[in-house]
Amino acid sequence: MKKTIILTIAILLTSLQLLSQNKARILVLIHSESGGTYKLAKELVKGIEEEGKATAVIKQVKPTLNPLMKDVPVAVIDELADYDGIAFGSPVYFGNMSGSMRSFLDGSIDLYTHKKLAGKPATVFMSAGSGDAHEAAILSFWNTLAVHGMIIVPAGTASIDRDIAQGNTVFGATSLQAMPGSERPSDGEKKFAILQGKSFAHIVVALHNKSTASVEMSATSSTQNKTVANRLKESGIILPDVPAPAGNYTPFTRSGNLIYINQVALKEGKILYPGTIGKDITEQQAKDATYQTMLNIIAVLKEATNGDLEKVKQCVQLTGMFNTEQGYTKHADLMNVASDLNVLIFGDKGKHTRATLGASSLPLNSSVEIQAVFEIE
After folding, report:
1. CATH class of 228-376
2. Per residue in 262-278, pLDDT tens?
3. How far apart are CA 178 and CA 191, in angstroms?
4. Is the separation of the CB atoms in 198 and 48 below 8 Å?
5. What Pfam families does the annotation carry (predicted)?
6. 353 touches 316 (CB < 8 A)
7. Please, which pLDDT band fits residue 20 given cuts at 50, 70 and 90?
8. Fold exhibited by the domain 20-211
9. Less Cβ crowding at N or C end of the chain, within 10 Å?
10. With a threshold of 0.90, does the pTM exceed it?
């Protein structure tokens, strides 16, 4: 009886953990000096998280001396690609976003070049001060998001309180902070921000779930009854040249039918995104480095099989090591990139046991190192 209860609890905890991991992640990115935009952001988060299908984090584009926001972390531009959706909040500056927000987004050239924000939902809310040109400011904000290919989600018309003067608009929540004798944001403005967050979460969650299902279906369809060469071709994967050893060792060793390979994130002779994850590089950059490392391993494996990857019987083990700060806990999320790529290329033969761990440093300042063991014919 006791074992049954323990097993049931374990199953429930595992189910809850899986549900939590599958939640859509939304960034609420703000610039706020006086605190008005930050107050609206907190209401937006309430709406986003109301139904428990999405999580939200508030980050600012630059530090501020306002004590209200002393614990709000500062974002880096590359991390925008890590989220399923982004809500942007800014004061209105002469019919536009603030200079600080503009300056932050001007650093998104790499995101634009590699289309990393394309297809991600975005919504905008603003603290409008006197209220002048608040709608124009939101529309001008949309221009930048449209260039990135983001899906723009307006607030809609629901529940706008028309009994008092306020900044809310169909384009997004705003707050008229300069209204004399009134607390801003008003209750109506806060309520509208909550509704905007809730509506935005519906869109983000729907696209997140569809994307997750599509990836799973794609992975299944692309790994059944196909050769490795066909999978590589259909996925558009081009294996790199085998990295030259940096010391007195060989790219691989064979013992019986087992092939042992170790690789770091070398690309064209240089380490891709070197440094410590969370300090020097973002998680998305670490994932890109992990992808490159796994490509290097498969390139070495191709050499070990004399160019015939069909000789691979099974991926036995992958061990991922990541250069992280103390207290980092998302190693498994990073390693999933390598595991998914392996299964995409080898199908069921790519499924493996796995270990993942953190390290204070890695060779050549690589952010990732992977050890792989394959069984071949």
Report:
1. alpha beta
2. 999 999 899 999 999 99
3. 19
4. yes
5. FMN_red, YjgF_endoribonc
6. yes
7. very low
8. Rossmann fold (3.40.50)
9. N
10. no
Q: For residues 223 and 11, give the distance between their C-alpha atoms in angstroms, rounded to a whole number.
A: 29
Residue 359 has pLDDT above 60, yes or no: yes
Q: Do domains 20-211 and 228-376 have the same CATH topology?
A: no
Residue given tokens 């209105």 in the structure block: 92
Q: How far apart are CA 58 and CA 126, in angstroms?
A: 15
Where residue 125 falls among pLDDT bands split at 50, 70, 90? very high
Residue range 334-358, pLDDT digits in tens: 999 999 999 999 999 999 999 999 9
Place of tokens 């899906």: 151
Name, in order, each residue with C-beta under 8 angstroms of 229's C-beta and a sequence gap of 6 or more: 309, 310
The two three-digit tokens of residue 311, written as one number:
């000789």
Give the separation between CA 316 and CA 132, rounded to whole angstroms: 64
How many residues belong to the chain? 377
CA distance to 97, 238, 253, 321, 364, per residue, from 356 (Å): 42, 26, 22, 6, 19
Please choose, from the candidates 354, 224, 243, 368, the residue with its C-alpha nearest in 3D space to the C-alpha of residue 298: 243
**SS3 track for the chain:** CHHHHHHHHHHHHHHHHHHHHCCEEEEEEECCCCCHHHHHHHHHHHHHHCCCCEEEEEEECCCCCCHHHCCCCECCHHHHHHCCEEEEEEECECCECCHHHHHHHCCCHHHHHCCCCCCCEEEEEEECCCCCCHHHHHHHHHHHHHHCCCEECCCCCCCCCCCCCCCCECCECEECCCCCCCCCCCHHHHHHHHHHHHHHHHHHHHHHHHHHHHHHHHHHHCCCCCCHHHHHHHHCCCCCCCCCCCCCCCCEEEECCEEEEEEECEECCEECCCCCECCCECHHHHHHHHHHHHHHHHHHHHHHCCCCHHHEEEEEEEEEEEEECCCCCCHHHHHHHHHHHHHHHHHHHHCCEEEEEEECCCHHHCCEEEEEEEEEC
Q: Which sequence spans correspond to the domains of the chain?
A: 20-211, 228-376
The mean pLDDT value of the chain amounts to 86
**Residue appearing with tokens 């059944």:** 224
Phi, psi of 359 (to 5 degrees): -140, 150
